[in-house]
């Protein structure tokens, strides 16, 4: 304290051209942030001079940037006040931690070698087991007798909250069944800001509301199964390029975003996961506003643990810890997969006072509380995770149950029909089909790495397509399917007697530009795919060889249907308006039931109701500054999110209201039937809109201020099936808040309901419940969600541009 006082007295005397930030290295860490705050007032952070810095620091330093993400200290000590479950868990965890030595606590904050992707230290004398952490968000990676669920982006395309819950529950049952305590998912970071982002498919759409609905439902499902859900990657992990520090390139990219966008887009879906009971959160690799996400006190201590009242633990992304003491004080609770900069370093730091003992106790308590919150300490299935590579003999531990049925259901519900002319689909009584393209049958040899379907990172690096049915993307979020239902076989088995099937499934290439034509074919199905993986961003949203294949088939086949398995956006402008391309299906990443699911839709057993979870522009350049990841120059690479809130349809709505550059808009998808909309009623719930801000007297619980989740407006309408086939309809509600079109996007999704299956002539009423958060904006000055005064526009329809009902309400 003396040192601090001395420093503060001395502060005003510093000449303004001195760079006092460089002196801060001399200060104990705990004083550093306070001093930085004081210094910032009189000495604005100078632009860095890298050449000088390199000399002064014998290497580059993050120091000049430090402070742009405001410091928030100390790290909040959680105590389980959110609800009774957490209270009990904390009571029990406190009891255990009180009996622990410092070494034992330290062992709970780091990873050890073991069977899982991550293994915490055990404390046998207190019967605390090593907790098993395992990937990933759509299935247990690298194991046998487990299911390969559709990827996150495919789930999002269902727009169905019930299926989202059942997905989380089934996934959670499989993790639990194999004794895994902590599931590393679901994913809302990346959200999908960058159209070519390599991991967007792991996430749940680039719209924060849809992603939030899915994050909440999946987390609830996993949590109900008894597993600790770990939403990731917190936060702003929007690109793969330079996501991590490297000796060759320098520091990881810094995602620089303003406070309002951070809240309204990127943190928003995590709120739902926290509210649904997530016990862990994984912090991301890259820097956020110049400070590494796993040592960013604003993100961890500030937003996550204070504003959102998080009771669980923060775990680093694998080897993503960049500092020891600093990360502990900034709110990191657990480093993975090894000791990282904790272990003996943390022990020393606690003994010499650099990390206060209560902080260490909080770190250990948070982990144990999450374990007890799921009651895993009472009984848990034995751990049956086997090293995938090299494969070994082991007893089959089958946790698949009947999940194949659910997988097929989600796979069909997330299939999006975007073009269907001349009643090409469904195929009612096909006599002669021709099938083309590599995505029609599974890859010939996908198991060179048993841990990673379709090859490891090296094999897949910069790959843009897969020579086989694409059911998942690559990297840690990929699945290892027990089998793959082949689209080709599933279609063949559905053909009526005496029909003809011809095929050419060779991957499109310059050597094979014109596959064999079959002039008598009635309908031609062309199966393409677009691959993406962790560790690299996509080079393109299209590929010339696949496009040439479609054009070749369409040159003679008058009913060409293109089916695309895609790990994200695929531009289709090269052939989408070709008169012979009469059908286009976006079949997403459907998981193991790829074949049965597409056959269900093609033959009309299931009426498609999936909707696009992103906008497909006519050309890649339509995405403007968010097409590509930022390359980033120099040691401290930066990515400025200066588009703010205007990502995807929010940007297209502003810049292209007529939709000339939009091929298929966010939320779009066709059906084999027609739906009519009517009966719009908007009810402002009495007494709920008087206060602009949630009651400051009410304590925050996990997920944020409880008032944010109170229903303030109800919107009702009726949807009826006016066509001849039964089907489900995804009804979407978009809201224009006061100020929309000025400082806020024209419309933002604030309600999704999948209605049906409705029989022809059948009607259903539905209710959208808008919460305080749904009708609020983040007020940067007040640091709170604020309900604006004025008129709100309500748009209800079948996509982000197809509105069938309009209304509004006024908040006075
Ligand atoms: C990924 C995480 C994953 C972890 C463990 C990291 O490289 O970014 O998403 O959970 O590895 O496999």
TrEMBL record:
- Gene Ontology terms: biological process: cellulose catabolic process
In terms of InterPro entries, this protein maps to:
Cellulose_deg_GH3, Fn3-like, GH, Glyco_hydro_3_C, Glyco_hydro_3_C_sf, Glyco_hydro_3_N, Glyco_hydro_3_N_sf, Ig-like_fold
Please list the reactions this protein catalyses.
Hydrolysis of terminal, non-reducing beta-D-glucosyl residues with release of beta-D-glucose
Q: Which UniProt keywords apply?
A: Carbohydrate metabolism, Cellulose degradation, Glycoprotein, Glycosidase, Hydrolase, Polysaccharide degradation, Secreted, Signal
Entry keyword Oxidoreductase: no
Q: Which residues form the Fibronectin type III-like domain?
A: 729-800
Report the principal subcellular site. secreted
Q: Name one GO cellular component term.
A: extracellular region
Q: What is its EC number?
A: 3.2.1.21
Which pathway does the record list? Glycan metabolism; cellulose degradation
Give the location in the cell.
Secreted
Official protein name in the record: Beta-glucosidase cel3A
Its ancestry begins with:
Eukaryota, Fungi, Dikarya, Ascomycota, Pezizomycotina
